[in-house]
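Hello Y.,

Per our agreement to keep a running log of every chain we model this quarter, I'm adding this entry. I've kept the format consistent with earlier entries: sequence first, then predicted structure.
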Amino acid sequence: MSGLFDLTGKTALVTGANTGLGQAIAVGLAGAGADIVAVGRSAPDETGQMVAAAGRKLRAIPADLSSIAPIGAVMAEAGPIDILVNNAGIIRRADSADFTEADWDAVMDTNLKVAFFLSQAAARGWIAAGRGGKIIQVASMLSFQGGLRVPSYTASKSGLAGLTKALANEWAPKGINVNAIAPGYFVTNNTEGLRADETRSRQILERIPAGRWGTPDDLAGVAVFLASRASDYMHGSVVAVDGGWLAR
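Predicted structure for the entry above:
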């Protein structure tokens, strides 16, 4: 059974792997045997140390994923990959009546547009080589719900859930699995403001059956599953990892 989850000999490209959820996913994949290509603006030094401790290699490719401009160069430098994790994302908070076009575009470009074109680039390589691959999108609870004061984030993550299904429809016959993880309320930089708000934090915790905020490590197992042959018959799924939030 353990062989189902073995990623030995695989290479995973993970965006935003320098901290938080992306770091935990990269380290989890390395623990299952994958080498890591980490793409992002910040040097993933700590992640590299953790990957090395797992006995695998990490190669960092610096890139600003606020636009699709660097994608061609990133994919060329990365070389052949087996797994793509589209984790990089940003959030902007403001009342919808006051939300700016600049904040709308910044979030949509990073969270949705770049994720699509990275997925396209990976899939093109696999199709040309006549082999399959694994794409994991990092969605959100706001792929299912509306949220408050985050219209572009909600739109981008809802779009990412739909994109996951659309790409699965086209690429499943080619042996490419496209699925998504939808984290609930996790301890990350994006939720720092919510956790600092005592009232809002209490309201959130009261709804989570598990009774706690998620930690990045809570995503590692699901990421390994979706990257491995254990999930070969999963296409277009959006897997909630939310402490029971959606069940409440």
